[in-house]
Amino acid sequence: MQDPTVVPPHEPLEPLENKVARIAQYFLERTQTMDDGLTRIGAQIAVHSLALRSLARAHDSPEAVERGFRAELDTLLGAFDDSPLTRPAHDALLLETNGFLAALQRKDRCE
User: Is residue 43 part of a domain?
Assistant: First the structure.
């Protein structure tokens, strides 16, 4: 058992520049991990969007698809009534929505 009246020797303090470098490296690694994750998610969304547009062009009843899509979109937007989307999120949603609806309206649809 240690004597509580004796102060144990402490390790020497790490130089400040070493500590700052370690912290910077930590954030750099985490940022790279987040960037990689966002890139992966962006690629997945792009593929899903292309797949949906392809399906929309080939579907037998674009009117039914559009009605269902608009109903789902209304539900999604209703979820943001209390906390509106940020401008970039709103713009991305609008871009994807318009792209999908345009694919439904294409004159050169697959028959």
Answer: yes
1 CB-side CA count, 13 A: 3
Say how far apart CA 111 and CA 21 lie, in whole Å: 62
For 28-85, the pLDDT digits (tens) are: 888 888 888 888 888 888 888 888 888 888 888 888 888 988 998 899 888 888 888 8
Asked if residue 53 is part of any domain, the answer here is: yes
What is the reported pTM?
0.57
Note whether residue 3 is domain-resident: no
Q: Say if 29 falls within a structural domain.
A: yes
> What does the DSSP 8-state code read for residue 56?
H
**Which residues 6+ apart lie within 8 Å of 56 measured at CB?**
62, 65, 100, 103, 104
Number of domains in the chain: 1
